[in-house]
């Protein structure tokens, strides 16, 4: 005698019954090859952990090379470098950003020599190098960052980094017209093989806090810097698309949305509008929130990390910059 049951033609749970069938019908998959690992580098002799980002370090040149070799061996294709510059090397113009003997150019050269397969992405913005912490030149008269004067410097910075061997330059400053100006300068210097990863839709976000601690562009009088005259308003989706379309027209090779998790709708929307590869940056505050709740025992941080990354891919990102890349590369039980 059959037990009483509903007459259902469709029982979606059939396809969720076992790990195998769930895997078979999975619509989105994470792959280590999609991840870019951000790495901080400083001029000290050894690596030190960043207090607001447990598990993430500021590397010395030597320890950076070891980390790059390991990441490369585990299948990571690319790293994105960020400097932590001592205060005495900063000034109001970010001059150290243009020094070809600076920590980032030296790191690029060393990685391209020792771990030549690994793609190296260098940030193009002045905030780690300026005393005030803005991404560009501060003009006291207009009480704002000067767009065109900043672009001139960013162009020089991009050319210098490309000459040192960077595979990608990644302008993260949100100045108008910088992608086009950088593309033009690279090409006229015979650097047409250097790609541009454009931080196209970068929002004025509270989730950058731990990063600013990491690069020491921190707070002024206890308050994080206000970058609202150049970074996007979190309320604006159309404007984010406009920024992406401009970067595409100006010659960007890859577009990027940042942060990622709180902006899945923006990722989705830009994905519909471009044929270019789309990246998303899961930023320091997104990482730190998951790790901190995990340390408190309030969530399972590994599962939360995977879920957050899966959501970013499902929204339409092909590539994800994430501070979880190192753990994912190391831990086979993290299991994609
Ligand atoms: C600035 C820059 C920031 C990040 C990368 N490049 C912070 C900011 O705009 O203040 C943040 C990345 C992160 O939070 O992980 N050029």
Automatic annotation (TrEMBL):
Organism of provenance: Candidatus Methylacidiphilum infernorum
What is any Pfam family matched here? ALAD
Name the protein family.
Answer: Belongs to the ALAD family.
Query: What's its catalytic activity?
Result: 2 5-aminolevulinate = porphobilinogen + 2 H2O + H(+)
- Give the enzyme class: lyase
Q: What is this protein called?
A: Delta-aminolevulinic acid dehydratase
- Keyword Signal carried by entry: no
Pathway recorded for this protein: Porphyrin-containing compound metabolism; protoporphyrin-IX biosynthesis; coproporphyrinogen-III from 5-aminolevulinate: step 1/4
Gene3D superfamilies xrefs: Aldolase class I
